[in-house]
Amino acid sequence: MEREDYIHIINTLIGQIEEGVYIVDQDGTGLFYNKAMAAMEEIEVDDVIGKLFHKAFPGIGLNESTMYQALKKGVSTKNKKQTYTNLYGKSITTLNTTVPIKLGGRTIGAMEIAKDITHLENLSDTIQELSTKKTRKESAVAIGKPAIRRYTFEDIVGANEGFMRVVEVAKRAADNNASVFIYGETGTGKELFAQSIHYGGIRKDGPFMAQNCAALPEALLEGILFGTAKGGFTGAMDREGLFEQANGGTLLLDEISAMPYPLQSKLLRVLQEDYIRRVGGTSDIPVDVRIIATVNEPPEKLIAEGKLRKDLYYRLNVVNLVIPPLRERKDDIPLLVDKFLNKHSERFGKQVWMPTEAVIKTLSRYDYPGNIRELENIIMQSVAMAGDEHALSEKLLYMPVDIKQVGASAANWDRKGPLDDYLGNVEKEIIREVMIEESGNISRAAAVLKIKRQTLQHKLKKYGIKG
């Protein structure tokens, strides 16, 4: 059978199916698009065939696109509701099943089968609006001014096993009122976790307040936290502090080790007694506030240096979260890069939506002293400087330091150092490179390195490389 005949048969078959069918190749270019799909999306077949899917349907973000998930991440989706707009601004709601098309372990395309549920969705929205109109009005009166929700657990991106264990602990913590102590290096996302615990838990309807303890001198910080009483000192006015403003909610105390010792003692008393006294005041004011405290150095070190009271640490450390640095979860770099590309492409009006494999390998060689914040800065600058590129290539990658050479740095032997250290560094970098190339598969990496699997496992443990 000739190729043209085969394609004609496939087109005829797809054309007779009542559901919409859309097939793209590995680059996201439309190959097949049947009449049923064209009818439900109210566009012409020629508007889709030969065009990139995100160009044909600009009204859906890549993060929400089931086609993108299948094509670029190999993820299958079954019966997922999607609402989007077509080329002409028409809103459409479909129920989609999307699967990657694979050949020899490679994703060579993706197929989407869709059912039109736009009319059902519109009817559901109308019923929901009528049934909740009164509730919304009453809620607006009761709440007054709703809090701005910034971060939730849905904003936390990762698949690394150790990191996801921390996320699970945080989710369990959200369901109770216990104090939380978070340790993580600068840029690891401590406030992201703190807000997720608040907005994803039992206190989500209460206020979320935050204060960096290193940002203010002691005299100002005390008044900010505890408030002031009129007449307590010259010029003092009655003013609520953050504890009163956060009543019924959560107070985040960032860099708590920067809080002076006398204030740490006062905070300890609040945790023990559940009341505060304003600066210059004489009355005790009851408060119901959950405390989340963060530090960017190991708490044991801070206690030993006299920067953090041991008794306060124990009082706060009911739930303990240790957020791993990015260098310990490099397998999450592709997910994070996808997130930041989508975020900043939208921000700067660009269409840079796919990193090349070379870029991922390059980014995975760097240890990121600034952690996720530094990675996001690299991606943000790269997108901002992009032209009409759709792929993030090494040429486009903006790096303040030459990350491309980091992987080779271990081979620069310091003649003053021991040969064993030099050889160990070279071996470590080679193993790390192969593990990245083989997506963390120990058996395949061992085959590439031509060593036994058990030997590689030993070396991974020796060098602290995640398998």
Question: Which strand order do you get reading across the main beta sheet?
Answer: 2-1-5-4-3
Distance between the termini: 47 Å
Domains, number:
4
**Quick check: average pLDDT?**
83
- Secondary-structure class: alpha/beta
Shape: globular
Kindly identify the CATH topology of the largest domain: Rossmann fold
Main sheet overview: 5 strands, antiparallel
Total helical segments: 18
Description of the structure:
The protein has helices at residues 3-16, 35-41, 53-56, 66-73, 118-143, 161-173, 190-199, 218-226, 242-245, 261-273, 299-304, 310-316, 333-348, 357-364, 371-384, 419-437, 442-449, 453-463, and strands at residues 20-25, 30-33, 77-85, 91-103, 106-116, 180-183, 208-212, 250-254, 275-276, 285-286, 290-295, 319-322, 354-355, 391-392. It is an alpha/beta fold and 467 residues long. It has 4 domains: 3-120, Beta-Lactamase (2-Layer Sandwich), CATH 3.30.450; 153-322, 3-Layer(aba) Sandwich (Rossmann fold); 330-407, Helicase, Ruva Protein, domain 3, CATH 1.10.8.60; 413-463, Homeodomain-like (Arc Repressor Mutant, subunit A), CATH 1.10.10. The strands form 4 sheets. Strands 2-1-5-4-3 form a 5-stranded antiparallel β-sheet. α16 packs across α17 and α17 (442-449) packs across α18 (453-463). The longest helix has 26 residues, at 118-143.
